[in-house]
Design a protein that fits this description.
The protein has helices spanning about 5-25, 30-35, 105-120, 125-130, 150-155, 195-200; strands at about 40-50, 60-65, 70-80, 80-85, 90-95, 100, 130-135, 140-145, 155-165, 165-175, 180-190. The chain has about 200 residues and is of the alpha+beta class. The longest helix has 23 residues, at about 5-25. Residues about 5-25 have low confidence and may be disordered.
Length: about 200
């Protein structure tokens, strides 16, 4: 083995070791810190609900606002207009009389609570109900959630979240074969809520 080849081999081994170390250095606490960093995240969403009984997905569009300290506004615009508020205290829907609480035990309510935990980077809350497997780096990561408890296993087969600085994609696979894909588009971070958002989340 020539001295030149030894130097090349040593450099290659060092590069490989550095790459492996960098790949392994991004863990769940770092993901949680990254996602909980921005005070406010706003953007658009497209949700495709794939039902076994239908040949085409049910598609809805809207906007969302995530506040690190207050919760999530999920504003559906198409095919119908409907506003939801998701906070640690519960889930509410805007009606003629203002915000009204929805059934906290329903499947949709459970999904919405999961959205809040996922978007806010609350991996500790997620770990109470799921086994988490994280791959990637801060700029492009993928988090796989596998339910632990019997109740969640009746609803979800697994959940996959992808993102970078913020979450960009959530895909929920239900045990009965239905699938929901949510794409979060054009997300922008901000330092504070607008006056309208403050009223909605404080109401």
């Amino acid at each position: 083995m020539t001295p030149l080849f030894k130097k090349w081999l040593a450099a290659a081994v060092l590069l490989l070791a550095t790459t492996i170390t960098m790949a392994q250095s991004f863990d769940l606490p770092q993901l949680a810190e990254q996602l909980s960093g921005p005070a406010v995240v706003r953007g658009d969403f497209i949700q495709d609900k794939h039902l076994r009984a239908l040949p085409q997905p049910l598609t809805s569009h809207g906007q969302f606002t995530l506040s690190r300290d207050h919760g999530l506004l999920w504003l559906l615009q198409q095919p119908i207009r409907q506003d939801y508020r998701i906070t640690p205290q519960g889930i509410a829907r805007r009606g003629e009389q203002g915000w009204q609480a929805v059934d906290p035990q329903g499947g949709s309510a459970r999904q919405n609570q999961l959205f809040l935990a996922v978007l806010s980077g609350d991996t500790q809350a997620l770990q109470r109900d799921f086994d988490l497997q994280l791959k990637g780096d801060p700029d492009a990561w993928r988090l796989q959630l596998t339910p632990r408890g019997a109740l969640l296993k009746q609803i979800f087969a697994d959940i996959e979240i992808q993102g970078g600085e913020t979450v960009t994609r959530i895909e929920l696979h239900e045990t009965q074969g239905d699938r929901t894909l949510i794409r979060l588009l054009d997300s922008q971070t901000d330092l504070a809520l607008t006056a309208s958002e403050q009223r909605d989340l404080a109401d």
